[in-house]
Each structure stands twice: as C-alpha cells, then as structure tokens.
Amino acid sequence: MEDYIIRATAGDGTIRAVATTTTNMVKESQKTHGLSPLATAALGRTITAAAMMSTTLKGERDTITIQIKGDGPIGGIVVVSDSQANVKGYVHRPLVYLPLNSEGKFDVAGAIGKGYLNVIKDMGLKEPYVGYVDLVSGEIAEDITYYYAYSEQIPTVTSLGVLTNASQIVASAGGFILQLMPGADEETITFIENKINSIPSVTGLLSEGKLPEDILNMILSEKDIKIIDKKPCKYMCNCSRERMERGVISLGKKEILDIVNADHRAELQCHFCNKKYQFSEEDLLSLIDKAGR
C-alpha cells in the first residue's frame, strides 16, 4: 500500500484532523541511512510529523523543517518536507543503540535527551517563520504537541509511531494530529480527551490493517467527520549537482583556492540521501569566478 495523508474536519469545523500511513517512507529512510531500529523509530516519528505538518503549506515552494537537538547519543534529527509531502531527513548518529524503556519500547526519549525543537516554515516571505521550544520529553509526539500549544497557541493531540518486526525491518508507521479550532467548547475538549485515552496505539491500529480514515473515524465519527482531501507522501531528496555547486560557490574564492591547492578536487555528500558529487580541479576553478569574493 502506498503512503498517503488525509485531512478532515469535524464538530462543525471546530476540530481539524490529519492522519497518515508512512510505512514505506520510514523503510526508505532506514535503508538510505542504514539506521539502527532505535534511530529508525526516532527519524520515522519525525518524518511522519513533518509530512502531516506540511499540509498547512500553501505555496509550491513552501517548506517546513523540523530540527531536534538534544544531549542524548543520537545527537540530533533534521527533517524537511515540501508542500507536496515529499520528505527527507537524517539523524546525526544513525547507529545508536539503547535498551528498551520501561514499557518495552524503543527509548527514543533516552536517545534524544534534553534539548530543543525548532520548526522552520519557509513560505517565500522575506524571513522564514521559526518556532522554538525546549523538549518536554524527547518522545517527539509530545514535543510536537507542546510546540503547537506554545508557539502557535493551538490545542493539539499528536500521535506518532514506528513498529519494527523480528527482523528489525519497519512493519508499520504513521500517526495523526488533532487540533481544536476557535469555537471548540468544553464538551468537545472532553470528548477528544476521552476518545484519545480509549483507543489503542497508532502502530497497533496500523498493524491490524486500519487505514488513516479508519483511525480518524474511530475518534471522530460521533462529531460528523468530513474528509477534505487525500494525497500521497513519500521519502524523496531533491538534491542536485547544481545545488552542490551553489554550496561550493558560497565558500568564496579563497576557500575554493585553498581546496584546489591542497586536494585538487572535492567530494560533497548529501546528508539526506548520501549521494556523492565529485568536483575536479577544473570544476572548482570554473566556479571561482562565480564566487564573488
């Protein structure tokens, strides 16, 4: 089954909901970066969050970036999604291992540790919007929930999950985000709280064959849920030689000449897909005139 995202409203527009299945995306990230199961869970949850959060982007070139930096052994996580939910990401240390936590699950919080979360929305304005919050748990879903409450003042419920099989391959991944819009009354708030507390984990539901639509219907069927749209999401890097050339040019003439004199060549590697780009001495010299300083 292909990965996709659905958007919905309920409660006469006072509830906004997004749900997704990201199993293939997380598998691709695991394969691309050679991730340990724990790193797969950490990056997979962040990929899932970014895909859903990207549904608020309007322009074709708009992007949303999630940066998580902690003092735990994984170091940090960076994930970027465009407005079409094409997502890419990486962790600083892909082979991190820790014992399972007290609930028998991957210790993502222990891997991340204490630190902060940034959400950067580049919507073509003069300056991007940057939201910054301290991590409240390192479990990512709770941190995304806190980000929305603190930076955007939107009451939110976030659920993210990655489940691996006995072979440590991703078996299911996905999540949902519910948000209360202006006009939501106390009855609606209590209703959402009770529903969230009564349903199984999102990975459990997905592993049972439940679709994103099924999950939202389980929660919101009593609130006249309406599906707005459905669109695919995928793990895709948009790096190119031209982008790498711009990176070299940004170093400036002196730095490029230093590279030429020392190594006579350069190799640049994309953090998101690990593709390598080779630049010969002639390539580097041809870029010097474009460097401008």
Structure description:
The protein is of the alpha+beta class and 293 residues long. The protein folds into two domains: 4-235, Hsp33 domain, CATH 3.55.30; 241-291, CBS domain Like, CATH 3.90.1280. It contains ten helices and 13 strands. The strands form three sheets. Strands 7-6-3-4-5-11 form a six-stranded mixed beta sheet, covered by helices on one side. The protein has a five-stranded antiparallel beta sheet with strand order 8-9-2-1-10, with helices on both faces. A two-stranded antiparallel sheet has the order 12-13. Helix 1 crosses helix 2 and helix 9 (253-263) runs antiparallel to helix 10. The longest helix has 17 residues, at 37-53. It is globular and about 70 Å long. The termini are far apart. The model has no long low-confidence stretch (mean pLDDT 93).
What is the helix fraction of residues, given as a range?
25-40%
Strand content: 25-35%
By CATH reckoning, the class of the largest domain would read Alpha Beta
The strand count comes to 13
In sequence order, what are the helices and strands, one letter per element?
EEHHEEEHEEHEEHHHEEHHEEH
Q: Structural class, judged by helices and strands?
A: alpha+beta
First and last CA, distance:
51 Å
Radius of gyration, whole Å: 21 Å
Low-confidence stretches are: none
- Global outline: globular
Total count of domains = 2
| CATH fold assignment of the largest domain | Hsp33 domain
